[in-house]
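To whoever is on call:

I kicked off a structure prediction for a single chain this morning and the downstream step that reads the tokens threw a length-mismatch warning. I double-checked the sequence; it's 277 residues and nothing unusual in it as far as I can see. Pasting both halves so you can look.
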Amino acid sequence: MPANKAKIHGILLVGCGKMGNALLRGWIAAGHAANGVTIIDPVAQTAAEWRGREGIVLVAGPADLAPTVAPAVIVLAVKPQVMGEVVPAYRRYAPGGAVFLSIAAGKTLTYFANLLGPEAAIVRAMPNLPASIGKGATVLCANARVAQDQREDCNRLMAAVGEVAWVADETLLDAVTAVSGSGPAYVFLLAECLAEAGIAAGLPTDLAHALARATVAGSGALLQESHEAPAQLRQSVTSPGGTTAAALSVLMAPGAMTAIITRAVAAATARSRELAR
């Protein structure tokens, strides 16, 4: 796609915490900030970090926006529990053709429509923490008011920080939250457990932690770069009767790792549904 088609004019970023910062860095790298990003965040530290950057405007609140501001995309990146207080101030932009892109877990399209009005074009996105290094995974879902060009704009913004997929069924976002949204924590726990197991096997603490970190990070990089399925990669490092096979006989036993992860994802999915109510 030509560069002039890939850049978005008029981004309003509401909230610039950890995920907002990650998104903004990705947009800058992709060239979107050159066409204008307005950050709305009352936190002085946010202002200090981004003040003076080319193409970026900082304001403390929606009342400080100039009357001429006409954003193409309004990214809602504040905490879910304050959305009800923050979002209504942006309702005035719904008739002007802006699309609202939320990254809040558990807040539904209907929830935002109630705050923004029935004519609002709304997209929900579920990104994850690796977006902070441009390696995120985001799944999006749009309401019926979202036009194709608005969908493409939202896709470009989230693609700037990793891989993107869309679903038509909003209820799938609960499972998405459980798999990719919460998934990094499962991987970090694996690294913790691997290090502790190494220590229990006699390794020095520093070495055990270093090996666990490098193994998890390297295996993830290999998985991303390889065209083989995870099962094929697993089989390629498992010699019959070898050490890996001995370990996998424990991890793959009935009721072991697969069953535990399945229960964990089911629990996270159920909690996501509860938060949406």
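Update from on-call: the warning came from a stale cache, not from the record. Cleared it. Sanity check on the structure: The chain has two domains: 3-173, 183-276.
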